[in-house]
Amino acid sequence: MRIVVNLDVMLAKRKMSSGELASRIGITPANLSILKTGKAKAIRFSTLEAICNELECQPGDILEFVKD
Question: If pLDDT is split at 50, 70 and 90, which confidence band does 68 have?
Answer without folding.
Answer: confident
